[in-house]
Specification:
Length: 132
């Protein structure tokens, strides 16, 4: 009886560890951060931002195109996209005051991760992610 109970607890713990470790995690420092995330759209606006913010989106159909656009007053941030298990650079926003944008069609999986990363502080920024 004890061996069975220990085995069941071990299986439960292993399952929790394996399912809890997948995906990406947000970790950031920010001032006046406002965000929203729906299945097909994400938005991020801030006064100051440093770190990583992750959006999880659902592709509405096979022909959907992902569009990412944003601007900063100062600083630099990089947007990565993972649609097939590999994190790839998608867009770098580094020109002060200029709206920068990129689009991508042909995303493989239904679940898409958009990872926004700033290694140093960025100021007065806004970012919009959406399927078209």
């Amino acid at each position: 009886m004890k061996k069975t109970a220990v085995f069941i607890i071990a299986v439960i713990l292993c399952t929790m560890c394996l399912t809890g470790c997948g995906g990406y995690r947000s970790k950031y420092e920010a001032v006046a951060l406002v965000h929203s995330n729906t299945p097909q759209r994400g938005e991020l606006a801030f006064s100051e931002f440093k770190g990583t913010y992750v959006f999880k989106l659902k592709r509405p159909d096979e022909n959907a195109k992902l569009a990412v656009g944003g601007k900063l007053q100062s600083g630099s941030l990089t947007v990565y996209v993972d649609h097939d298990g590999k994190k790839r650079e998608f867009l770098t926003i580094d020109e002060p005051g200029k709206m920068q944008m990129n689009t991508k069609k042909g995303l493989e999986n239904e679940t898409i991760y958009v990872i926004v990363q700033a290694d140093n502080k960025c100021y007065e920024g806004a970012l919009v992610i959406k399927f078209m």
